[in-house]
Amino acid sequence: MYKIIGFQAREYQDSIFNSSKTQNTLVCLPTGTGKTKLAILLLIERLNKFPESNIIVISPSKPLSSQICEEIKSNTDIPKNQINLLTGTIKPEERSKIFSNSKVIVATPQTIQFDVENDRISLKNTSLLVIDECHRSKEKFANTIVAREYNKYANEKLILALTASPGATKEKVSEVCSNLFIENIELRTEIDKDLAIHIQKKENEDIIVKLPEEFKKIQTALKGQYKSRAVGLKIYGFTKPPSVINKTDLLSYQKSLQQSIKAGDFLAYRGVSEVAAMIKLNHALGLIETQTPKSLQDYFKKLEIETSKASKNILSNKQIQSAIRQTNKLVETNTLHPKTEKLKEIIDTELKKHKNTKTIIFANFRSTVNELKQVLEKIPNAKPTILIGQKKGFTQKEQISTIEKFNNHEFNILICTSIGEEGLSMGSLDLAIFYDHTASEIRKIQRSGRVARVRPGKIINLITEKTLDEAMLWTSKRKEAKMHNLLNYMKRNLESK
To answer: Which fold is adopted by the domain 337-480?
Structure first.
C-alpha cells in the first residue's frame, strides 16, 4: 500500500478528494492552494485500489511537468524510479520502456498523444488521468485527444481536471467539461470558509498615471488616422460607430471581407487593406499608451521593412511621419513612459524598506521586459532577471535555471511575459506588479496567484489613465466575477441530474 508523506490534507482538499473518487471532476482552485497535492491524494487512492494500474499526469510544459514530477516524488513513498517524466526530448522507443516500467508518468500532453497514436503505449491499465491547466482543453488540443483515447480504452477510468480558471463564458466552460467528460465540478474561491483560513492576505492597489503631453501628441496622431479609416469602413457595410470599433471587430471585418473576395467582390480588396492598416494603427496606439517609446519605435521600424500596401499607406501619411519623429525624439532623450518611472519609484521604495523583497513583474511584450530590466538594474539592491517563452528566445533548460536562481535569491526581481503566469512554482513572492493588462480573466487570475502563497503579499496594477490599460483591467475583473457565478450555476445543474 502506497502512502502520502510530507503533507497533511487540508479540509477542502479532503472534501474535494472524496467528491472526485468516483466521478470525473473539474477542480477550480486559486493558484497556490494545492491542486497538485489533491492529485497526489487521488493517485495514491487509485494505485492502492488498482495495484496493477498506472497513473498519467499531463501538464502543458516541460518545466511545469518537471516540477509536478518532483512534487510527487517528495510527497509519496512510491519508489522514485517508478515516477518518471516523459517529454519529446526522449527518444520514442525509450519513452515506451519508461512508460511500461512506471507507476506514475508525468508528461506533456503532446508526448502522450503521439505515443498513443503510434501504438507505443496503451492507456488500458491507466486508472487515473490528471489534466493540469485543463482550461487548455479545446477541441483539437492534445489534452482533449488524450482524454478521448483514455475514455475509450481504459479499463478503470477516472479523470481529474485541474485549473485556477476554466473561462468566463458558458460556452468555454461547457467545452472543457464536454471534452474531458466531466461529471462533477468542485469550486473554491478565497471567500469560501474552508479555503479562506489558508489564504494569506493579498493587498491590491491601482496606481494611475497620466500620459505626458509629448506622448499625447503621438497618441492623437494615431487615433486620428485610426478614426478616419474607421469612418471609411461604412462603404463596406460596417456601420458600428468608429469610436467603439476594437480589434475584435476588425478581425471579424477582415474575415468577412475575405469571404467577399472569394465571392468575387473585388472592391473588398481595398477594404482588407484598410482593415489591416487599422489593426496596425491599433497596435501602435497600444504601444505608446501602455508600453514604452522604444517599443513603438521598434514597431515603426518593422513597418518600414514590410512590403504590404497597408504598411506603406500608414508610413506615407504626414501625421504618422510626425508621430515617428516625435517617437524617435523620446527615445533619443531617454524619456521613459510614466509607468516605467512609477515602477522605478515602487521598486526603489520597496527595496529600501526590505532589501530581501521578492517581486514579479508582468509585461505582455518581450521588448518591454528587456527594457524594464535595463532600467531596474540601476536601482541599488535591485537584482532583476527576465523569463520569456521558448518562441521568444529561452529554452526550457534556461527557463528552469532562471526560476531556480530566482528561488535561491540570486535575483530578487523576475520580469516576465505570460510564461510566468501559469503553474510554475516560484516560492513565496511579496509583490506582483502588472505593468500592463489583459482582457483574459484566466491570465489575470494566474498572475494574481503568484503572490501571498506563504505570507501576505501585494498586487499593484499600473494603469495609464483613459487608455487600453483601463479597459483591459476592468474587463478581466468583470469576467472573473462572471466565471465564479457561472461555475456555481453549472455545479448545481450537474448535482441535480
So the answer is: Rossmann fold (3.40.50)
Sheet with 384-387, strands from edge to edge, namely 202-209, 457-464, 431-434, 359-362, 413-416, 384-387
| Lowest-confidence segment of 42-56, 181-195, 346-360, 364-378 by average pLDDT | 181-195
d(CA 496, CA 185): 12
What predicted TM-score, i.e. pTM, was given to this entire model? 0.77
pLDDT in tens, 129-177: 999 988 877 777 899 999 999 999 999 999 999 988 777 677 888 888 9
The 10 Å Cβ neighbour count of residue 494 is 15
From the options 3.40.50.2300, 1.20.1320.20, 3.55.40.10, 2.60.200.30, give the CATH code of 213-332. Answer: 1.20.1320.20
486 in Cβ contact with 480 (< 8 Å): no
Average pLDDT, the chain: 88
In angstroms, rounded to a whole number, what is the distance separating the alpha carbons of residues 449 and 444?
9
The pLDDT value given to residue 476: 83
How far apart CA 297 and CA 327 sit, in angstroms, is: 6
Contact by Cβ (8 Å): 163, 87: no
Quick count: other Cβ atoms within 10 Å of Cβ 247? 14
| Closest C-alpha among 346, 341, 338 to residue 205 | 346
What cell does 272 get?
A: 482588407
CA distance 6 to 8: 7
Q: Does the pLDDT value for residue 279 go beyond 80? A: yes
Range 229-237 contact pairs with CB under 8 angstroms and sequence separation of 24 or more: 229/274, 229/277, 229/278, 229/281, 230/278, 232/274, 233/271, 233/274, 233/275, 235/271, 236/267, 236/268, 236/271
pLDDT digits (tens, 9 = 90+) for 8-64: 888 999 999 999 999 999 998 887 788 899 999 999 999 999 999 999 999 988 888
Helices (H) and strands (E) in the chain, counts: 19, 13
Q: Which CATH superfamily is domain 11-198 in?
A: P-loop containing nucleotide triphosphate hydrolases (3.40.50.300)
Q: Tell me whether the CATH fold assigned to 11-198 matches the one assigned to 337-480.
A: yes
> At 280, phi and psi to the nearest 5?
-70, -40
The domain spans of the chain are: 11-198, 213-332, 337-480
